[in-house]
From TrEMBL:
InterPro entries: HTH_MarR-typ, MarR/SlyA-like, WH-like_DNA-bd_sf, WH_DNA-bd_sf. Gene3D superfamilies: Winged helix-like DNA-binding domain superfamily/Winged helix DNA-binding domain. It comes from Kribbella deserti. Coiled coil: none annotated. Pfam families: MarR_2. The lineage of its organism: Bacteria, Bacillati, Actinomycetota, Actinomycetes, Propionibacteriales. This is MarR family winged helix-turn-helix transcriptional regulator. Residues 33-134 form the HTH marR-type domain.
């Protein structure tokens, strides 16, 4: 610990609060554009991106849960809502009692339509905000944070194993 005892140093506190503000504001702003321009929530977009980047636009539910880091109930409820809107469907998977989650034609259309504008917004608000000269440093810092979390989960607080594999 630092000289501040259990508290953050002034520099850590400033950086932490800046991170909280940028995370909240960037997410809100980007998701507002997705909703307004394409009728997609941030969660919809996350599911669509993961499915569109997978083999044949399909994933087993537990894999999608790992990619999104969502709890099983949240994923199940959200997939149900997306099914009702025609963006995805559940499809039986040979050799498994759990279905695959599959992009429908409407889901493919939604991600193909939204992705270019979303990428442009990310570039404008995130990429230009960080600046090309700082992207490597920013990426390294983020990877360091993820590595620290991974190590903590591996050694001190392992995640529960999923039973839907």
């Amino acid at each position: 610990m630092s000289d501040n005892g259990p508290w953050l140093s002034d520099e850590q506190q400033t950086a932490w609060r800046a991170y909280i503000e940028v995370r909240q504001r960037l997410d809100t702003h980007l998701y507002r554009h997705l909703q307004r321009d394409f009728g997609l929530s941030g969660a919809d977009y996350e599911v669509l991106v993961n499915l569109s980047e997978s083999a044949a636009g399909r994933m087993r539910a537990f894999e999608l849960g790992e990619m999104t880091r969502w709890e099983k109930s949240r994923l199940s409820h959200h997939i149900k809502r997306m099914e009702q809107r025609g963006l995805v469907r559940r499809e039986a998977c040979a050799g498994s009692r759990f279905p695959d989650i599959v992009l429908t034609d409407e889901g493919w259309d939604a991600i193909r339509t939204a992705a270019p504008k979303h990428a442009a917004n990310v570039r404008a608000f995130f990429g230009e905000g960080v600046g090309d000269e700082r992207l490597d440093v920013f990426a390294a810092a983020c990877k360091g944070i993820v590595a620290a979390i991974d190590e903590h989960e591996r050694t001190s607080c392992p995640l529960e194993d999923s039973d839907d594999r």
